[in-house]
Amino acid sequence: MAFLSIDNVSHQYFTKMNYTKALQSISLSVEEGQFISFIGPSGCGKSTLLSIIAGIITPTEGSVRVNNTTVQRPSVSIGYMLQQDYLFPWKTIVDNVLLGPHIKGTLTNGLQQLAIQSLTEIGLEDVLHAYPSQLSGGMRQRAALVRTLMTDPHILLLDEPFSALDYQTKLKLEDLVSNTLKQFNKTSILVTHDIGEAIAMSDKIYLFSASPGSVFSSFHVPENLQQLTPFEARQHHDFPALFQHIWEELNSLESSTNR
Predict the structure, then answer these.
(1) In whole angstroms, what is the distance from residue 86 CA to residue 80 CA?
(2) What secondary structure letter does DSSP report for 72?
(3) Is pTM, for the whole model, over 0.85?
(4) Which of 101, 182, 226, 247 could form a disulfide with 107, with the two C-beta atoms 3.0–4.6 Å apart?
(5) What is the mean pLDDT of residues 142-163?
(6) Do the strands 61-66 and 19-30 form a parallel or antiparallel pair, or are they unpaired?
(7) Which range of residues forms the domain containing residue 126?
(8) Using alpha carbons only, what angle is made at residue 10 by residues 213 and 247, rounded to the nearest 5 degrees?
């Protein structure tokens, strides 16, 4: 059985005057340790589906199962990393990272040492006791990644976590996140508008159509690209062909939508 199963999920947003169908009959599965990406036109429901997987939104129809358990509410077993880091400005970096165990009442000296070790491994050893306002955007996102991993989630959801960063920082952080998730064998889902980012980081990519959102097509990233870091994958001779293929599918999809 798949580690993550999304079974016939549909979702509608209701108002007093009308309703919007955001998702239509989404079914897919993800194996443990796999990294997949969702791409598609704006408004195709990618982030809505991520919120459903996280248990933040209950789907109008269908169900989501993680590790053979139906998702019914938010849980520390599902980590969520967003575009904005949401670090508490009045807490130091190490205190922000330890927030999850502190809330759960599971904070120990061992976890404190693990937090310091993890922050050191990603190059934040000099800012352990600094405050978020003293760090760059890339440094804050690195801290946010460690904070998410400190609760040892079964699955990690990434909703455009690099889109607000400059290009050089984005490339460096892609490598860091990819290497960290592979090291911990985390099952991960990335929502992005960046085709190159999806190819560089993923094992499989799902392209969504809009109005309502549904799976239009999927693409397997070749093994030889999966084995590289995201930066290396972008330089590989197989990268442009896959990029062009996905871009043409997305372009034709958006053209048909705008008619």
Answers:
(1) 11
(2) -
(3) yes
(4) 101
(5) 89
(6) unpaired
(7) 87-152
(8) 20
